[in-house]
């Protein structure tokens, strides 16, 4: 009896599990449904509005048309800000991923004092109110003459995206079994080979998630972007903000809908990749 | 870099010479001055409880852990400071350590690719090795789709496919359940016969050690207590630790009287042939295995020349092919005897019996904690 129990434990098999196997109950289901509803409500209003045929915001729209999408895509101002946003977003994603992955490796693998402190410091941009970050960056960038430059935008957004990348990568590396490195070494692989053939493929989903998070963060970020903007360089959210203060025009609804759709698609990428991997 | 100038080459084989390991931040060595010669093609097991240093010793052989002192030589060449990937040893881990993103075939091909073998040759070699472990039909599966036993067989295939100098196994059966463990144990024995490779096996399971090994090195507290064939260790344990770790035994404590050739215990004296004169007056322990104890009802009819002591039967446990008889002797020593099923039992619990045994089947080892643990004593007891 004890022997059986101990072999089962040694085999690391799950023992008894708590809970029913029937899934979640009705109470939990309705709470989940309600939460979901609250989360998608704004989108559910904006997207129909963007297909309105009227000259002002209407919900629900009386007539349907694609005129505001046409307005969006034919406006040089909108298109330029969209391009700016995508360019900055991609640059931010690249730099934040490179730095974040490196930082996560350091935090995960090197044993040194003050690791916890560094980890907390890197999370600071998540905790400090956005406006405080924005004012601080604005002040410093004024002196460094980085306001209104691509480098300024990318630097600021990279700092803000780092916590996302580091968090995703820390989780990814925590699940990485380092016995695999030892095994690869015993099989004759150098450290470099091990890194590229074993480590990289296994942490790739985490890296991709980090990249996507960083990109989306930069695409959505508005507070810092408002401070750093000049007429020459405006991101899409800034353009949206400006347009809503100056001219009330449903083009913004079209722009919003496009952004929501694009962001959603981008965020689904890592999930899709992961699912494909697990069912070959 | 090279330390080969200090080595005294001794032909093929693996030589561990005075190897120690002190982990950073600890004062007690995990491995303490271990010396061991492993012959070419031998199946040797490092047996010991957890924390005895057996896994650390294996890790030093593989090169995962640096040595703090001493040298490790393979075929006369000092490899103590060589990187693991250059030692050409196969390693099997307890938790398999298969690459989860590679198919079975790709896992097995990995070490061959590192050795720059041509593709066609790799495919042939992988197929051949998967056949050896009966997994030829699973080549395209991912490790996660296999059972634990199958995964460990893939790991075995991966570790022998490149014909390494030796195969090192760290508790390879530890994560498997009983039935699979027995099955894989037989496969490992078969692979050893077929490949003729040196196998170094680490386990805390005495049963595995006894059934698989050509020789066993018993580890305790960072040191090797005794090295020998399974039957040597079982029949002639050199220390009390070895006797108690490997199999069951009854241990009578007493004082050695070398001139009379006796171990004087409380209430009786055990005849002990070939006692070392140097042991005279020190504490000794007579060790007898359960199947060597004869039980006689009452005063008994003990063959001449045999040792005897009286005991009370404390319990009788039926274990299928034999009865296990629990005994308590006059001085409080507890022990057990084995009675093959079918033979009548001499007593019921609570009754007195006479216990006898042939002195040739007992081992006298120094009592632990006494001032008598000199190497000559150990040799005498083991001889």
From TrEMBL, chain A:
<dbReference type="InterPro" id="IPR000515">
    <property type="entry name" value="MetI-like"/>
</dbReference>
<feature type="transmembrane region" description="Helical">
    <location>
        <begin position="26"/>
        <end position="51"/>
    </location>
</feature>
<keyword id="KW-0997">Cell inner membrane</keyword>
<comment type="similarity">
    <text>Belongs to the binding-protein-dependent transport system permease family.</text>
</comment>
<keyword id="KW-0813">Transport</keyword>
<feature type="domain" description="ABC transmembrane type-1">
    <location>
        <begin position="82"/>
        <end position="271"/>
    </location>
</feature>
<dbReference type="GO" id="GO:0055085">
    <property type="term" value="P:transmembrane transport"/>
</dbReference>
<dbReference type="Pfam" id="PF00528">
    <property type="entry name" value="BPD_transp_1"/>
</dbReference>
<keyword id="KW-1003">Cell membrane</keyword>
<dbReference type="InterPro" id="IPR035906">
    <property type="entry name" value="MetI-like_sf"/>
</dbReference>
<feature type="transmembrane region" description="Helical">
    <location>
        <begin position="88"/>
        <end position="108"/>
    </location>
</feature>
<keyword id="KW-1133">Transmembrane helix</keyword>
<feature type="transmembrane region" description="Helical">
    <location>
        <begin position="120"/>
        <end position="144"/>
    </location>
</feature>
<dbReference type="GO" id="GO:0005886">
    <property type="term" value="C:plasma membrane"/>
</dbReference>
<keyword id="KW-0812">Transmembrane</keyword>
<feature type="transmembrane region" description="Helical">
    <location>
        <begin position="252"/>
        <end position="273"/>
    </location>
</feature>
<keyword id="KW-0472">Membrane</keyword>
<feature type="transmembrane region" description="Helical">
    <location>
        <begin position="150"/>
        <end position="174"/>
    </location>
</feature>
<protein>
    <submittedName>
        <fullName>ABC transporter permease</fullName>
    </submittedName>
</protein>
<feature type="transmembrane region" description="Helical">
    <location>
        <begin position="195"/>
        <end position="217"/>
    </location>
</feature>
TrEMBL record, chain B:
<keyword id="KW-0067">ATP-binding</keyword>
<dbReference type="GO" id="GO:0043190">
    <property type="term" value="C:ATP-binding cassette (ABC) transporter complex"/>
</dbReference>
<dbReference type="InterPro" id="IPR008995">
    <property type="entry name" value="Mo/tungstate-bd_C_term_dom"/>
</dbReference>
<feature type="domain" description="ABC transporter">
    <location>
        <begin position="14"/>
        <end position="246"/>
    </location>
</feature>
<feature type="region of interest" description="Disordered">
    <location>
        <begin position="361"/>
        <end position="383"/>
    </location>
</feature>
<keyword id="KW-0813">Transport</keyword>
<dbReference type="GO" id="GO:0016887">
    <property type="term" value="F:ATP hydrolysis activity"/>
</dbReference>
<dbReference type="GO" id="GO:0140359">
    <property type="term" value="F:ABC-type transporter activity"/>
</dbReference>
<dbReference type="InterPro" id="IPR013611">
    <property type="entry name" value="Transp-assoc_OB_typ2"/>
</dbReference>
<dbReference type="InterPro" id="IPR017871">
    <property type="entry name" value="ABC_transporter-like_CS"/>
</dbReference>
<dbReference type="InterPro" id="IPR050093">
    <property type="entry name" value="ABC_SmlMolc_Importer"/>
</dbReference>
<dbReference type="InterPro" id="IPR027417">
    <property type="entry name" value="P-loop_NTPase"/>
</dbReference>
<dbReference type="InterPro" id="IPR003439">
    <property type="entry name" value="ABC_transporter-like_ATP-bd"/>
</dbReference>
<dbReference type="Pfam" id="PF08402">
    <property type="entry name" value="TOBE_2"/>
</dbReference>
<dbReference type="InterPro" id="IPR003593">
    <property type="entry name" value="AAA+_ATPase"/>
</dbReference>
<protein>
    <submittedName>
        <fullName>ABC transporter ATP-binding protein</fullName>
    </submittedName>
</protein>
<keyword id="KW-0547">Nucleotide-binding</keyword>
<dbReference type="GO" id="GO:0005524">
    <property type="term" value="F:ATP binding"/>
</dbReference>
<dbReference type="Pfam" id="PF00005">
    <property type="entry name" value="ABC_tran"/>
</dbReference>
């Amino acid at each position: 009896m004890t022997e059986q129990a101990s072999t089962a434990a040694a085999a690391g098999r799950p023992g008894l599990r708590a809970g029913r196997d029937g899934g979640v109950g009705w109470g939990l289901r309705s709470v989940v449904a309600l939460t979901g509803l609250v989360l998608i409500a704004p989108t559910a209003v904006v997207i129909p509005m963007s297909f309105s045929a009227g000259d002002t915001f209407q919900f629900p729209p009386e007539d349907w048309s694609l005129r505001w999408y046409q307005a969006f895509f034919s406006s040089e101002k909108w298109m330029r800000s969209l391009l700016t946003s995508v360019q900055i977003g991609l640059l931010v994603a690249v730099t934040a991923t490179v730095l974040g992955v490196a930082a996560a490796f350091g935090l995960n693998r090197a044993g040194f004092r003050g690791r916890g402190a560094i980890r907390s410091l890197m999370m600071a941009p998540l905790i400090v109110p956005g406006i405080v970050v924005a004012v601080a960056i604005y002040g410093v960038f004024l002196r460094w003459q980085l306001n209104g430059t691509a480098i300024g935008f990318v630097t600021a957004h990279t700092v803000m995206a780092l916590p996302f990348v580091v968090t995703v990568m820390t989780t990814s590396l925590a699940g990485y079994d380092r016995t695999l490195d030892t095994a690869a070494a015993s099989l004759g692989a150098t450290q470099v080979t091990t890194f590229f053939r074993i480590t990289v493929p296994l942490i790739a989903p985490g890296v991709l998630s980090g990249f996507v998070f960083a990109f989306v963060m930069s695409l959505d970020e508005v507070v810092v972007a408002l401070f750093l903007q000049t007429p020459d360089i405006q991101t899409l959210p800034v353009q949206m903000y400006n347009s809503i203060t100056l001219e009330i025009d449903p083009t913004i609804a079209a722009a919003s809908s496009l952004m929501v759709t694009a962001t959603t698609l981008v965020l689904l990428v890592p999930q899709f990749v992961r699912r494909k991997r697990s069912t070959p | 870099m090279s330390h080969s100038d200090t080595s005294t080459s001794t032909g093929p084989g693996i030589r561990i010479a005075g190897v120690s390991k002190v982990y950073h931040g600890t004062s007690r060595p995990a491995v303490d001055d271990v010396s061991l010669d492993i012959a070419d093609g031998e199946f040797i097991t490092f047996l010991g409880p957890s924390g005895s240093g057996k896994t650390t010793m294996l890790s030093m052989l593989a090169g995962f852990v640096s040595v703090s002192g001493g040298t490790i030589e393979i075929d006369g060449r000092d490899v103590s400071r060589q990187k693991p990937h250059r030692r050409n040893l196969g390693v099997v881990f307890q938790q398999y350590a298969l690459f989860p993103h590679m198919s079975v075939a790709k896992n097995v091909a990995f070490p061959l690719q590192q050795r720059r073998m041509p593709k066609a040759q790799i495919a042939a070699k992988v197929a051949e090795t998967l056949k050896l472990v009966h997994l030829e039909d699973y080549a395209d599966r991912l490790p996660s789709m296999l059972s634990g036993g199958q995964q460990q067989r893939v790991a075995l295939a991966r570790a022998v496919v490149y014909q390494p100098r030796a195969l090192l196994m760290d508790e390879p059966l530890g994560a498997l359940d009983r039935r699979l463990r027995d099955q894989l144990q037989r496969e490992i024995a078969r692979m050893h016969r077929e490949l003729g490779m040196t196998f170094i096996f680490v386990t805390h399971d005495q049963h595995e050690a006894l059934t698989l090994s050509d020789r066993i090195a018993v580890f305790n507290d960072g040191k090797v207590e005794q090295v020998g064939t399974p039957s040597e260790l079982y029949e002639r344990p050199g220390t009390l630790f070895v006797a108690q770790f490997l199999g069951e035994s009854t241990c009578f404590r007493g004082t050695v009287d070398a001139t009379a050739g006796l171990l004087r215990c409380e209430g009786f004296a055990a005849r002990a042939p070939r006692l070392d004169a140097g042991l005279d007056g020190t504490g000794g322990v007579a060790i007898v295995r359960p199947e060597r104890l004869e039980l006689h009802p009452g005063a008994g009819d003990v063959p001449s020349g045999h040792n005897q002591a009286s005991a009370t039967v404390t319990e009788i446990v039926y274990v299928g092919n034999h009865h296990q008889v629990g005994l308590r002797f006059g001085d409080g020593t507890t022990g057990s005897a084995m009675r093959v099923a079918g033979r009548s039992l001499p007593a019921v619990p609570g009754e007195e019996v006479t216990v006898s045994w042939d002195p040739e089947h007992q081992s006298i080892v120094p009592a632990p904690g006494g001032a008598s643990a000199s190497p000559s004593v150990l040799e005498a007891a083991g001889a």
